[in-house]
Specification:
Layout lengths: L3 H20 L4 H21 L5 H8 L7 H6 L9 H13 L16
Helix pairs in contact: 1-2
Length: 112
């Protein structure tokens, strides 16, 4: 059985692909960070950054906040990889822009 971290890495790669396909957003910096830090390290670094990433802003402009790393980390089982503080940052970023996180977030999608 794959570890949760490996599955999270696959899901982070999936949101990168979906953002590219659905929003025509090529998140090259996100991909570079994933190569350097891994998926979990990338998510944690972005959650500890002082502001919104360019990718978050681009996905907001595309009305695709559900494809953000912030939305992903709030979903089960991925939320178990993060501290309450990190989850609070993700939740605040999304709710500040009107994204409803109290509703059931869509789960991981499988590649077609």
């Amino acid at each position: 059985m794959e570890s949760i971290e490996r599955r999270f890495e696959a899901e982070m790669a999936n949101i990168y692909q979906r953002a590219k396909r659905e929003c025509n957003y090529n998140a090259t910096r996100f991909l570079q960070m994933m190569t350097e830090l891994g998926a979990l390290g990338t998510a944690k670094a972005l959650l500890h950054a002082p502001g919104l990433s360019d990718g978050f802003t681009a996905l907001w402009e595309c009305d695709c906040l559900g494809l953000t790393m912030e939305a992903l980390v709030l979903r089960s089982p991925w939320n178990s990889l993060f501290t309450e503080e990190e989850l609070a940052v993700a939740r605040k970023r999304l709710t500040d822009l009107g994204y409803r996180v109290d509703e059931k977030l869509p789960g991981p999608r499988t590649a077609s």
